[in-house]
Amino acid sequence: xxxxxxxxxxxxxxxxxxxxxxxxxxxxxxxxxxxxxxxxxxxxxxxxxxxxxxxxxxxxxxxxxxxxxxxxxxxxxxxxxxxxxxxxxxxxxxxxxxxxxxxxxxxxxxxxxxxxxxxxxxxxxxxxxxxxxxxxxxxxxxxxxxxxxxxxxxxxxxxxxxxxxxxxxxxxxxxxxxxxxxxxxxxxxxxxxxxxxxxxxxxxxxxxxxxxxxxxxxxxxxxxxxxxxxxxxxxxxxxxxxxxxxxxxxxxxxxxxxxxxxxxxxxxxxxxxxxxxxxxxxxxxxxxxxxxxxxxxxxxxxxxxxxxxxxxxxxxxxxxxxxxxxxxxxxxxxxxxxxxxxxxxxxxxxxxxxxxxxxxxxxxxxxxxxxxxxxxxxxxxxxxxxxxxxxxxxxxxxxxxxxxxxxxxxxxxxxxxxxxxxxxxxxxxxxxx
Length: 433
Ligand SMILES: Cc1cc2nc3c(=O)[nH]c(=O)nc-3n(C[C@H](O)[C@H](O)[C@H](O)COP(=O)(O)OP(=O)(O)OC[C@H]3O[C@@H](n4cnc5c(N)ncnc54)[C@H](O)[C@@H]3O)c2cc1C
Prior knowledge:
By secondary structure, this protein is of the alpha/beta class. It has one domain (10-432): FAD/NAD(P)-binding domain (3-Layer(bba) Sandwich), CATH 3.50.50. It is built from 14 helices and 19 strands. Strands 1, 2, 8, 9, 10, 11, 17, 18 and 19 form a 9-stranded mixed beta sheet that branches. Strands 13-14-15-12-16 form a 5-stranded antiparallel beta sheet, covered by helices on one side. Bound molecules: flavin-adenine dinucleotide.
């Protein structure tokens, strides 16, 4: 059994080795510095370089160290279940809501086309993503929402309860939506592939180099690490939840939420044929989502949040192992052979932000649990914006000032406090509604 936060991940065990990028040990200049090599930073840097900008990308550890290398690998061309077109329009206004829904609707193809174009070896499967209701009411709400999703360009179809059962093998799920352009990847392999492609496109990538300060200088910015610095006209922060104290206004604008994952033993062939037979990942409409996929090597991967008690990783193993045994008919005794954890940058409305901290210093953050497709697509647009290929007036997200979430210094405990309420409501709805 392997445990731990990064080395314990299944993805680490089965991804092709990544290039080890050397630290920054000089004073250099660039057009743009991108801080943080998750999907957002990698996609931003890659597309800015492809658009002709001289780009430096700096990462505390190695590409994919953060949420990007630790997630479940679902490519989800859709926003969170509670965010239908009406909610997005209320939050962003019609113009930006329309743009965001269009960006999201194309985001599955954006990821898989990029993987094909760059020839990234990451077990990519574009075979749909399933979103069933967890209750009759949730099923009805999804069915009402489908026409608006189709109108926004999302390629999806409706599966009634019987059809959903055939796709999942999970009798407790109701009918729901299949988003045809979704699928799955090995997320760490995808991040490592993007890093190599970014370097090949001319990005100077530095690993093991935490950025310790970002200061204004002349017409630009000085970005310092322990052993070097870069002076550039533009800086884009893509640090997600691992920002630490570097820019307090940025940290104050997000809610960090710790999420745990397990991967089981390799399952017998009969289980593989019965459960998610088309290998399309499933995530239902619970507030604390039930999510399940097959790994490329025949393990079940699932997870979620756990109470903030000592030994959380062991608690997570037990919780999600037992949940699988309870919910999935006919499984052998489940072992968690890999378990790991990562941190999501959440926002109160579950929508991402493009923030201007100061002229020339921007941040893209808050992709919540929808990060693979959304970060890749937003990164592409921001990269093209930096390269002058997308105008200020064409951006999907409004450029906003950072706004602190309430009680921001302790916002990390919010998800833990709300978890029991979510779980109680989910269980009640699944049983009685
Ligand atoms: C357990 C888990 C499961 C998830 N499952 C899914 C899923 O199935 N599908 C999906 O779409 N999304 C999922 N998500 C969400 C998704 O992973 C994230 O939204 C996405 O990876 C965010 O990408 P990012 O580039 O913004 O951030 P990250 O990948 O977190 O990257 C930020 C990077 O910035 C670096 N950094 C921070 N500070 C500094 C500094 N001072 N100097 C230099 N570098 C710095 C960090 O080291 C890190 O590598 C999941 C998240 C988790 C944690």
